[in-house]
Amino acid sequence: MKKYCKDFVVVENIALTPTFFRLTLQYPEKLPEINPGQFVEVLIKEGADVLLRRPISIHDVDEDKNQILLLVQIVGKGTQALSKIQSGQSLNLVFPLGSGFPLRGEKVLLVGGGCGVAPLMHLSRAFNNIGIKPDCLIGCRNQEQLFSTKEYSDLSNLHIATEDGSCGIRGLVTNHPILDKKFDTIYTCGPTPMMKAIAKEALKRNIPCYVSLENTMACGVGACLCCVVDTKEGHKCTCTEGPVFLSTDLKDF
Ligand SMILES: Cc1cc2nc3c(=O)[nH]c(=O)nc-3n(C[C@H](O)[C@H](O)[C@H](O)COP(=O)(O)OP(=O)(O)OC[C@H]3O[C@@H](n4cnc5c(N)ncnc54)[C@H](O)[C@@H]3O)c2cc1C
Ligand code: FES
Fold first, then answer.
1. Out of 3.40.120.10, 2.40.10.220, 3.30.420.40, 3.40.50.80, which CATH number does the structure's domain 108-212 have?
2. What pLDDT score was predicted for residue 2?
3. How many other C-beta atoms are found inside a 10 Å radius of the C-beta of residue 73?
4. Ligand 1 centre distance from Cα of residue 181 (Å)
């Protein structure tokens, strides 16, 4: 799949919570095909001494407007600097990177936590486009950390688990009764312990589970080998052969 290195124009930068923000980015021409689960490498030029690009999932795509959306959590100097970018400024991206999620089955469950909820919006939209409304389960600490619930509800049957019980069921995503419904495929993205727990639940039920890894990355194109993951077929680059893997193909899952 061809890769592009282009300047986008920031249309909107909205703070969703004190630590999450959403960028809407305008592409100057027709966007190439982008698969759900693919990511971009963002060049952070201003406000931080950040040498390497930062990998960020494609949160959503508006093909009619030629816009892509990124959902970003502030965790360090790069994402902090990115949170300050304003509409009208340009942002250079290398995209679309990685393989993305395969669309498999008709009854599908998407499970996300933290910034791992980001690619699940585009994945939900892709399923909607082929006439499937997925179930989507989001886990977080409390209601204050929830955002974009209307957007997720528009594209999926949304289920929520909060650790303090302030919204949805009390507990972790693995405690949610939706897991007992019969699914053809489960997709998950979020903190590694959450993905491992979901993969385990899927295995118990004999359901294939695709996990999207967020290994530390540098080049994003298979050159530096800093993102390798141990699979049953040997080491693979997360950036080119992932970030999505079938959980049972991974050694650590
Ligand atoms: C394929 C992929 C898709 C991603 N998608 C998103 C997304 O949609 N939204 C989003 O907010 N983030 C996403 N991330 C994580 C994001 O790339 C990192 O949070 C970011 O690079 C941190 O940069 P920084 O300069 O702010 O932090 P740094 O100063 O580099 O690091 C600050 C802290 O964050 C930790 N950190 C750095 N990189 C990562 C990482 N890759 N994963 C987990 N912790 C990390 C560091 O260990 C350190 O503790 C994704 C990562 C990958 C590999
Ligand atoms: S990030 Fe360089 S090889 Fe994957």
1. 3.40.50.80
2. 94
3. 18
4. 33
Rounded to the nearest angstrom, the distance between the alpha carbon of 77 and the centre of ligand 1 is 10
Does 4-97 match 108-212 in CATH topology?
no
User: What is the CATH architecture of 4-97?
Assistant: Beta Barrel (2.40)
Which residues of the chain fall short of a pLDDT of 70?
A: 47-48
DSSP 33: P
- pLDDT at 48 (0 to 100): 66
The pLDDT of residue 1 is: 84
CB of residue 48 inside a 6 A radius of ligand 2: no
Atom number of ligand 2 nearest to Cα 228: 4
CA distance 104 to 120: 14
pLDDT tens sequence across 123-182: 999 999 999 999 999 999 999 999 999 999 999 999 999 999 999 999 999 999 999 999
Alpha-carbon distance of 95 to 42, in angstroms, equals 9
Q: Which two tokens stand for residue 242?
A: 């992932």
Cβ(78) – ligand 1 distance below 6 Å: yes
Cα(237) to centroid(ligand 2), Å: 6
pTM (2 d.p.): 0.95
The mean of the pLDDT values for the chain is: 96
Output the pLDDT for position 102. 97
Tell me how far the alpha carbon of residue 58 lies from the centroid of ligand 2, in angstroms. Answer: 18
What are the boundaries of each domain within the chain?
Answer: 4-97, 108-212
Residue having the nearest C-alpha atom to atom 4 of ligand 1? 56
Cβ–Cβ under 8 Å, residues 94 and 5: yes
Q: Relative to the CA of 79, which ligand 1 atom is closest? A: 26
Q: Is 145 helix (H, G, I), strand (E, B) or coil?
A: helix
